[in-house]
Amino acid sequence: MTVSRHKRRVSTTRALGLAIAGLALALVLGVVGGVAIYNTKDGEAQGNSAPVDRFPDTPTGMVAVVDGLGNLGSVAVFAVRPPDESGAARGGSVVVLPVSADVSGGFGDERIPLAQLATTYGTDALADDVSALLGLAIDAPLVVTVEELGAVLGSLGPLAVDLPEGVVGRDGSELAAAGAQTLDPPTAAAVLGASSDVVPGTSTARADLAVWRAIAAAVGPGLPEPWALPDGTPTPTVTAFSELLSGPVGVSAVGSRALSDLAVNPSGVDAVALDRAEVVTIFGHIAPSRVAAPNTGYTALVRSPFADDQLDGLTRYDVAYAATGALLGVDANVLSVDTTADEAGEQTVIEVADESMVTSAERLADVFGDVDVRVAERRVAGVNLIITLGTAYLPIVESTTRPSGAASATSTAPTAPATEETL
Questions:
Q1: Residue ranges of the chain whose pLDDT lies below 50
Q2: What is the pTM of this model?
Q3: Greatest CA span in the chain, whole angstroms?
Q4: Whether the Cβ atoms of residue 241 and residue 61 lie closer than 8 Å to each other
Q5: Phi-psi region of 157 (alpha: psi -120 to 50; beta: other; left: phi over 0)
Q6: Continuous H helices in 72-134
Q7: Residues whose CB is less than 8 angstroms from the CB of residue 188 and which lie 6 or more positions away in sequence, other chains included
Q8: Which fold would CATH assign to domain 60-274?
């Protein structure tokens, strides 16, 4: 019963956030939500027989580390990269989250960080809450103790870690000093399992990021043998981890803003709101087949195809992040982000899945400047708008809109649609 009360609270605060976002939608896209519902069935626009591509399968998982008392030390979410043409090794991406991430995203007047959620309600529903927080389906959740993780990491041997600051346990004892060092697997696991009522979750997340990067370096081009996960681990989770570690692994983090003002955090708990635009940009980049569409507006694929010499101090990721934030601001849903380098045209091109969407899409000129709206000659399943950004949009992108997380520095191959068919 307590879990049900918790879920009702989270749902209420999320509903408030969506209602606020819906006001922006009404101002910019008018009746886009109603039109989208009328013209779609199971995510597909009707009345356009153009060829359709589908996103490749990108299994996702979560690994959470707890101590012997059930205190949550760290959370990381991963996505498996699709196999190459030979069907060989995959690899993937790991995204580290702060345990102080507020499950309601900063909406409402109650802050419930992931760490508090795990302590109060246990970890049985943690994957569901992380899934709701990120707007991402999680296929393979795994919760392990520090001791279990130490045994799992044993196959990697000593890890070369550069910790940004020292890490202490709940009793105040030092687990690892700041700086470059070599950690044995049990100590690396202890760092990932370290929790504190004093040290902010964003600080422990920086240490978690360093350890996961060390793990990725040890994995290298891929492990010859899968990890020996704890007995009783479900087969789908074993498979997902095996696929993740069978190739190179990239590691990144998500930016956040502190929720320290008593007006939004009356209980004064350690809580942050994840940068929603960055969450969507990252997972739209590495796991588009698992990204949810919780908003009432159209679904979109954002392409940031600029050549390096077309960008003035920005990156393709920066521009995609800015566009994603703008679309979320008008209550659209960004399912996929593609930052493959090409030569961008001047105008932003918006390809719509159905002719009835043209008028609404043209209103996005208020967001992107001059736009060229056309009916797509080739569609993507579940996507209403394919937005290819042009150079005329670059002056709109302020340098202050750059993401605050570590993902912009991480090179991860974008996931392109695959599997042609006609609907």
A1: 1-43, 400, 408-423
A2: 0.84
A3: 65
A4: yes
A5: left
A6: 114-121, 126-134
A7: 150, 153, 159, 161, 211, 214, 215
A8: Aminopeptidase (3.40.630)
